[in-house]
């Protein structure tokens, strides 16, 4: 039987896949754009009256479906439940209503968490090439590791949603169709994520970050207005390399302008390396069949041991809160889950140990709450229940719109003084009073 025959035999309908789900199954979806669309998810949800204790888990959910609808989840609770490995806006609302649960993990160990829990794994892939290999598109992350280790970890079903709109991306990003149990075909345009427009505070923070980036540095950029502002401001830099978890949306411009050359990359010279990507149409067109960009599993790329080998590594990530001893919180406040750890702790620790490396934590000094009060992002103590994303022993460089605080080799008192200097002016007096009492 040729691979063409095998592929045709394995290609089925969404309803056929839904009928294969059993009570008690744990179904994990691929991360971000590597997940599956509503065509498949909604078909499974439609069987909720026949099922008990099925769980569907996503990560960086971007494809809309009834799984994100609070009314739907309330009506099927106990029959089909929801979990997530990384919160987005829709999953935040679900967790706030206590209609789902969150699985703590980092990018480097995410595949192990998925493998340990799953009976079914579903992800998006490209149509097969002439040799019968599908491409994982813009998301490798935990997908490839899960596929390669599924059998010894007891994953019963591996489903590929074949989407001819998915870009083909180079790297260790190919899987033969023989690895899959079934395919469903669906042609859906990529969801576009426009470049973030930074506000005044974010632009000021980006300016401070740009002071720290030198020609020849290797960068990891997180997601959001500040990292996008940093990427936009790199026009005066030369010979930069990108070794990152998520490919920046500004990558096409940085490469075309000769700012990013990847000439100092020790992983693969001349090539941008990442684990997944999300962006606008220009970004997807740039990635498609481009040998200058490669994707690999997060267990390899977003691994402190790999990252620390890259000299002059600058990890640049956002945070929600930093306490006066340097504890960094980027996931939630109290028990309210806002996002997840992702690759931040991995890149932070890797850059911390790299020769000439630096781990930068970015946050605005505070924000106004709904009641009009001002809440400082530099705090004496984290609220009870707040997760520590990066421990104070690895605290490095913290940046707000009011300046840069270098914490790495400082004592608690010295850290408090440095952080208070970059706190919002209206909060500095109170923070100083508290710090004197604490330290």
Task: Give a description of the structure.
This protein is an alpha/beta fold. It folds into 2 domains: 183 residues, 3-Layer(aba) Sandwich (Glutaconate Coenzyme A-transferase); 239 residues, Glutaconate Coenzyme A-transferase, CATH 3.40.1080.20. It contains 16 helices and 27 strands. The chain starts with a helix and ends with a helix. The strands form 8 sheets. The chain has a 7-stranded parallel β-sheet, with helices on both faces. A 6-stranded mixed β-sheet has the order 12-11-17-22-26-27, sandwiched between helices.
Summary of the model, kept short:
By secondary structure, the protein is of the alpha/beta class. It is built from 16 helices and 27 strands.
Termini, distance in Å?
73 Å
Mean pLDDT score, rounded? 96
DSSP helical segment count: 16
Within CATH, the superfamily of the largest domain carries the name: Acetyl-CoA hydrolase/transferase C-terminal domain
What's the number of extended β-strand segments?
Answer: 27
User: Stretches where pLDDT falls below 50 for ≥5 residues?
Assistant: none
Number of domains: 2
Q: What's the CATH class of the largest domain, please?
A: Alpha Beta
For the largest sheet, list the strands in their spatial order. 4-3-2-1-5-7-10
Helix content: 25-40%
- Radius of gyration equals 22 Å
What's the CATH architecture of the largest domain? 3-Layer(aba) Sandwich
- Strand content is 15-25%
- Might you state the CATH topology name of the largest domain? Glutaconate Coenzyme A-transferase
Largest sheet: 7 strands, parallel
Shape: globular
């Amino acid at each position: 039987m040729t691979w063409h025959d095998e592929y045709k035999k394995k290609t089925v309908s969404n309803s056929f896949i839904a009928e294969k789900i059993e009570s008690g199954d744990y179904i994990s979806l691929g991360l971000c754009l590597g997940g599956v669309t509503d065509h498949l998810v909604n078909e499974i949800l439609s069987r909720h009256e026949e099922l008990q204790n099925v769980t569907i888990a996503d990560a960086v959910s971007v494809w809309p479906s009834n799984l994100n609808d609070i009314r739907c989840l309330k009506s099927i609770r106990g029959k089909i439940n929801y979990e997530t490995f990384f919160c987005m806006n829709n999953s935040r609302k679900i967790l706030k209503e206590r209609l789902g649960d969150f699985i703590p993990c980092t990018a480097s160990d995410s595949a192990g968490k998925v493998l340990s829990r799953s009976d079914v794994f579903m992800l998006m892939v490209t149509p097969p090439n002439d040799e019968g290999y599908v491409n994982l598109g813009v998301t490798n992350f935990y997908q490839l590791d899960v596929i390669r280790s599924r059998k010894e970890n007891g994953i019963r079903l591996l489903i590929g949603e074949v989407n001819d709109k998915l870009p083909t991306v180079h790297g260790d990003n190919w899987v033969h169709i023989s690895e899959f149990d079934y395919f469903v075909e669906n042609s859906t345009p990529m969801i576009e994520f426009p470049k973030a427009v930074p506000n005044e505070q974010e632009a000021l923070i980006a300016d401070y970050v740009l002071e720290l980036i030198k020609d020849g540095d290797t960068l990891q950029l997180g997601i959001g207005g500040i990292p996008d502002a940093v990427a936009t401001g790199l026009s005066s830099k030369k010979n930069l390399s990108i070794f990152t978890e998520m490919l920046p949306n500004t990558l096409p411009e940085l490469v075309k302008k000769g700012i990013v050359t990847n000439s100092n990359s020790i992983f693969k010279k001349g090539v941008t390396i990442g684990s997944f990507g999300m962006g606008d149409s220009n970004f997807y067109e740039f990635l498609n069949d481009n040998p200058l960009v490669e994707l690999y599993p997060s267990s390899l790329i977003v691994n402190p041991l790999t990252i620390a080998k890259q000299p002059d590594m600058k990890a640049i990530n956002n945070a929600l809160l930093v306490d006066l001893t340097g504890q960094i919180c980027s996931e939630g406040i109290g028990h309210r889950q806002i996002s997840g750890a992702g690759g931040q702790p991995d890149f932070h620790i890797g850059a911390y140990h790299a020769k000439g490396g630096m781990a930068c934590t970015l946050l605005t000094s505070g924000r106004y709450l709904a009641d009009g009060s001002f809440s400082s992002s530099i705090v004496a103590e984290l609220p009870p229940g707040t997760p520590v994303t990066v421990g104070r022993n690895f605290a490095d460089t913290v940046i707000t719109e009011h300046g840069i605080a270098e914490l790495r080799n400082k004592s608690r008192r010295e850290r408090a003084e440095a952080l208070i200097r970059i706190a919002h002016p209206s909060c500095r007096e109170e923070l100083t009073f508290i710090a004197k009492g604490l330290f």
